[in-house]
Amino acid sequence: MTTSVRVRMYNTGCGDCFLITFDTDGQVARVLIDCGTLRASKGTRRADDAARQIVDDLGAMLRLDVVIATHRHEDHVSGFRLADLWAGVEVGEVWMPWTEMQEDPEAIGIRRRQTAAAEALLSLIERLPAADPRADPAARAEAAARAEAAAGIMLNSLTNETAMKTLRNGFAGKAQRRYLSLDSDAPVIVRAPEVKVHVLGPSRDPKVIADLEPPASERWLAASSAEGRTRLEPFPKDWSIDWGEFSSASELEPLWLDEALLRTINGATADDLVEAAAMLQGCENGTSLALAFEVADRVLLFPGDAQWGTWKAMLANPAHVDLLKRTSFYKVGHHGSYNATPRTFVADYLPRTARAAISVARVEASNWHSIPHPDLVAAFTAKGVEVVRSDAPPAVSSASVVVRGDISVDLDLTPDLAPSLTAEPLTLVREAAIAGSASGAQTPAR
Amino acid sequence: MQSPRQPVVERKPALDKFKRLKTAYMKRPPPRRPLKILSLDPSAGLANNRVAIDVPNEELSPGPCGARIRVVDWDAANRRFYAPVDLDEDPILMGGGLDPSESDPRFHQQMTYAVAMRVLENFEQALGRQLHFLDARHRRRVLTIVPHAFQGPNAFFDPNSEAILFGYFRADEVDPGPNLPGQTVFTCLSHDVIAHETSHAIVHRLRPYFNEATNTDVLAFHEGFADIVAIFQHFTFPKVLEDQIRKCRGDLQQPGPLFELARQFGYATGQGAALRSAREGHAPDPTEYRTVLEPHDRGSILVAAVFDAFFAAYQARSSKLIRLATGGTGRLPEGELRSDLVPLLAQTASRAAESVLRMCIRAMEYVPPVDITFGDYLRALVTADYDLFPEDAIGQRAALIEAFRARGIYPSRVTSLAEESVMLSGDSTASQLTVPREIITTITTNGLFGGSAMSYKHVADALRDYGTAEEQVASLQLEPDLPVKVQGFHPLFRVGSGGRVRVDIVAQFVQTRPQTAHERRQLGGLALRGGTTVVISEDGSIRYITAKPVPGEAPDAVRPLDRLRAFVDETDARDPSCAWLSEDAFRRRMVARSSFRAVHRGIPQRHKSSSKSGVTKP
Question: Which residues contact B594 (CB under 8 A, 6 or more apart)?
Fold first, then answer.
C-alpha cells in the first residue's frame, strides 16, 4: 500500500483554502479545509474564484470526501456562500467544531454571546466618533482612530449565514455532518483508511472554554442597547466652572494642571475598544477545529486559527506533542500572526525538515500590518523550515512545489513520508499541466 | 525631621490684647483634623455608612491642597472644574468635616484626601520616616488626586504625572449588581479603591522598578500589596468592625464574619472580591500559585495568605475575651452583654489589623529593588518582623510562614521553612563588610535634621564608591563592569521591644545593562536591571542584603536571561492583542502591559468573570 499526499494551497488572498489529496494505490480521497477571504483582502484572487477553480479542477469527479470548516470567520467560509455552485458538488462528510452544533445549549450559548458581543462592539465602533460633539477636534480624531483600529480587528466577526447554511445543509449527496471536539471519537476519511485523524481542539472542558467567552459582553450589550454611551453629568452645572475661568483664577493656582497630567486625564477616557476587539477575535478564533492528519508516521498539522488555550492543552499532552514532533506540513495559524504559533512549537518541536504554508495577502485596514509577522517568518527560516506564502510563491516550480500562476501552489509531501512509500511526482506535473491548460494556460513562472 | 507646613491658630485682633493668648502654646494648632468618610460602598446606603477618622493637621488651601497631596477636581468628560472644598471653613471644621453626600463633589474631595492621608500616615508610622513623592530627579512633588477624572469603571495611578485618576460611570453600563439601575457610581467614594491606588503611588515611590514586569509575581505583588493595605487599613476603623460583629450571628471564633466584611468592602479593589480565593471553609490550594497568572487573581493569593496571619493574630488576642463573653460557645448571647463586648472585640480586631498592616509595610524596606517575587516578600516580612520583635509573641510570624507554605509560595533557594531559614541570611559574605562611619553619621543627621541637596549627592557618591570598590562589589552581588546607581538611602528609626530606639540605614543599589535596540525589542521594551538592597546597622556593619543580580547569559547565572525571555514569550502567547500590535507597540509591549491603567481596566466587574488567560492588555 503506497500513499501519496499532496496539499494544494488555493490563493484566496487573505484567507484559507487548502485541498489535501490522499492517493492510496489509485484510491483518491480529497479533503477541503476552509474556503474564505477577508472582505478587506487586497489579493488578486478571492474565495469565490477559488471555489470555482476547485470545481474546475475536480472535473468529472465532482466529489469531495470531506469538507472542513475550521471556524465561522469570513476568511475561512465566505467561499461557501456560492450555494448553487456547491449544490453540484458531492460531499461525503462535513466537519465543523462542536461550537457549531445547532442543538447543544452550550454551543448555542457561546455562539449567541460571541455574536451579540460582536454586534454590540461593531455598533459602538460606528457610533463612537460622532458621540461627542463637545470634544475638541484632537480628541475626536483620536477617538476616530481608535474606532478604526478596532473596526480593523473586527473585520471577520460577522460571519456569512449563507455560507454557514451551505455547510450545514448544502452540497450534493447526503453529506454527514460531524461536530468535533477534543473528546470526540476520531473521525475517519473513508477512502483514505491509512490516514489517522487527530482532533486537537476545541476542548469541551469548562476551564478551557472560559477563554471562548467574550470578556465583558454584558457591558457592550448594555451599552449598545442604551442608545449608545450618553454623557453622564455627575453634578449640576452650578457646581462647576469651565477651563477658561479655572485657569484664569490665580487663587486656584495650586490646583492648576500641567500639560502632561492633562493629557493623561484626557487619555483616560479612551475606550477599550481595541482591546475588546482583540479579545473577541481571540475568543472566536479559539473555537477553531484543530486537526492533525497522521499518515505513514508523518503529520500534517492544520490548527485553523487556534489560540493559546488550544495550543497550551496540545503542548501539555504528551501524545499530541509526539504528533507535533513529527510534523511534515504546518498550515500556519491565523495567517502568520505573531502569537498564533507558539514560540516553543517552532523552537522545540517543529522538525527542520517540515514545510510551512502561510495563506495571506495584504489587507487594507489598520491593525493588520503585522500579519504575517516578520519575526515568525524569520523563526521558521532560522530553523531551516521551508516557508511557502500564497502572496509570494516561489518564482520557479520545483519537483515538490508546483506553482500555478496566482491560482494555487501544490506541495508534494510524499517524499517526506516514511521511505518505504513511493512517490509519483509525474502525476502531479501532469495534473497541473491539464489544469493549467484548462484555465487558459497560465505559466508556472510569474 | 521636617513636617508639612503647620497652620497657626488665628484669632480676632481684639483677643490679641490678652498676652497669654499670644504665647506659642496658645497658638499651637491641634495636631489632628477630624474628617468623615464612607465606611462602605455607597450602594449600602448613606445612613449607617459613615466613619469619623482623623488625619494629621496641616495647612490646607481649597482643593484640599496640602503639602504632599492635593485634590484637583477636573472632569475631562464634561470639561468642568468642580468647586474645591475649603476644609478650614468654620462650618466644616465644626462638623468635623462635611457629612457624606453623593451629590456634593466637595465631600468626594474630602474623602479622597482623608483616606489618602491616612494611607500615607500608616506608611510613615510603619517605616519610621517621612515620605515625600519624588520625580525622576529626586525632587519633591505633590501627588494629585482627580476624583472625577473620566467616565468609566476604572481608577488608576499614573506614575509619570504622579496622579491618581478616578472614574465614574452609570450603574447599568456594567452589571448593576446591588446598585440602583441608572445610578452614578463614583469609584472615588470607595475607601478601598482610594487606599489601593494611594498604596500603588507609595510603593512606586519606594520601589520605582516594581512596575517593570520581569516575572509573573511583579504586577501581582503591586496589586496584592495594595489590596492588603486597603483591607487592613479598613479594618483599623473599629466602628466598621463593630457593626459587623454586632450583626453577626455566626461563630466569632471562625474567620467567617471578618471575611464577610472584607468581601463587602472589596468589589472595587479589583476584579471581584480581593479575598475570593480565601472563602470560609475553603482550604488554600497550592496549585493556584502555579496556574493563576492574572495580576489581581494572583495578588489575591498574597492577600489570602496575609489574612490567615491576621486571623491568627486576632484569635490569639481575642480568644480569652470571646470565651468569657460567650461561655465557650463562640456565639454572643442576645441582650445587654452584646453591647459591652462588641466594642472590645472590635478594638481587638482593629489592633490586630494595625499590627499586621505595620508588619506588611515594614517589610518593604527589606525587598530587593527589582524583580520582586512573593518568596522575596515572605523573606522580607519575616526578617522585618524579627528585626523589631525577636520573640514572636502571638505566633503571627509562624502563622504567616505556614499560610504562605499552604499556598505553595516558597522563597527561592531556601532549604527549610524554619523561621531562621526563611529570614534573610545575616551570615552572607556581606556581613563582614563595614560601611564608613562618615556615611552613617551624615545619613542619620540628615534624616533627623534635614539635609541639603548637595549633602544628598555627596552621600550618594560616597555610597556608590563604597559599593563599587573591589572589596565590596562581589559581596553585594553587583556586576563589576556596570555603573552603579544609588537608587536611594535613608535612616530607619524604630522602637523595638523593650523600648530601645534603633537606627539602621537602608540603601539601594541598581544597575542597568545596556542593550541593543534588537535585544530590547525581543524583551518587549524591558530593561535589564539588577540591584541590591542593603540594611546597615548603626555601627556600619551590614546586617542583611537582598540581591537580584542583573540577568546574565550564562546558564548558571543567578538570574538567567533565558528565563526572562521565556517569560516574555509566555506573556506574548497569552495576549490576544499581540497579533494586532504595530511595530512601535510591539517594541514596547511588555512595558505597556505593566501600566497601572492597563492592569486596572475593567474594575469593578461583579458578574461571573471568567478568569482570562491572565494577560494585561497594552
Answer: B211, B212, B213, B218, B219, B616
Q: Would the ipTM clear 0.95, i.e. be above it?
A: no
Q: Which three cell numbers stand for residue B191?
A: 475607601
Higher pLDDT, B18 or A346: A346
CA distance B463 to B476: 12
Buried b (16+ CB within 10 A) or exposed e, A134-154: ebeeebbebbeebbbbbbbbb
Per-residue cell: A63: 466529489
**Which class does domain A3-108+156-220+280-439 fall in?**
alpha beta
List CB contacts (< 8 A) between A334 and chain B: 579
CB-based contact (8 Å) between A145 and chain B? no
Report chain B residues whose CB lies below 8 A from the CB of A246.
74, 81
Query: Which candidate in A370, A371, A373, A375 is best for mutational testing of the B interface (most B CBs within 10 A)?
Result: A370
CA distance A358 to A388: 6
Minimum-distance CB partner of A254 among B65, B184, B569: B65
A65 in Cβ contact with A192 (< 8 Å): yes
Q: Please give, rounded to a whole number of angstroms, the shortest distance from the CA of B152 to a CA of chain A.
A: 7
The rounded Cα A239 to chain-centroid distance in angstroms is 52
| A·B CB contacts under 8 A | 184
Taking the domains of chain A in order of start, what are their residue ranges?
A: 3-108+156-220+280-439, 109-155+222-279
How many angstroms away from the CA of A231 is the closest CA of chain B?
A: 8
Tell me if A339 and B580 make a contact (CB, 8 A cut-off): no
pLDDT of residue B249: 60
Give phi and psi for A240, each to the nearest 5. -130, 165
B503 shares contact with chain A (CB less than 8 Å): no
Distance from CA of B615 to the nearest CA of A (A): 11
Q: Which of A392, A397, A208, A385 is nearest to A306 (CA)?
A: A208
Q: Shortest Cα distance from A48 to chain B (angstroms)?
A: 27
For B245-276, the DSSP string reads HHH--S-TTSSHHHHHHHHHHGGGGTTS-TTG
Cell numbers 468626594 correspond to what residue? B108
Closest CA to B37 of B251, B236, B330: B236
Q: Does B405 touch chain A (CB under 8 A)?
A: no
> Which is nearest to B582 in space by CA: A371, A72, A253, A6?
A371
B575 touches chain A (CB under 8 A): yes
Q: Does the structure show a pLDDT above 60 at A216?
A: no
Chain A stretch 229-248, residues whose beta carbon is closer than 8 A to a beta carbon of chain B: 229, 231-235, 237, 239-243, 245-246
> What pTM value is reported for the model?
0.88
Q: Does A60 contact B at CB distance below 8 Å?
A: no
Contact with chain A for residue B494, Cβ under 8 A: no
B597 versus A200: the higher-pLDDT residue is A200
Backbone angles phi, psi at B593, to 5 degrees: -65, -20
Classify residue B174 by its DSSP letter: S
C-alpha cell at A275: 482591546
Q: Decide: helix, strand or coil at residue B153.
A: coil
**A205 inside 8 A of chain B by CB:** no
- Please, what are the averages of pLDDT over each run of 10 residues along chain B (618 residues)? 60 81 85 93 74 94 95 92 95 95 95 98 92 88 95 88 91 56 82 93 96 95 93 87 72 65 53 44 79 86 89 84 77 68 86 93 96 95 88 87 91 78 74 84 83 82 88 88 92 80 91 95 95 91 92 90 94 89 92 84 38 30
A28-42 tens-digit pLDDT: 999 999 999 998 899
Residue of A nearest to B615 (CA): A279
Among the listed ranges A259-263, A338-342, A419-423, which one has the minimum average pLDDT value? A419-423
Distance to chain B for A343, nearest Cα, Å: 7
CA distance A413 to A428: 11
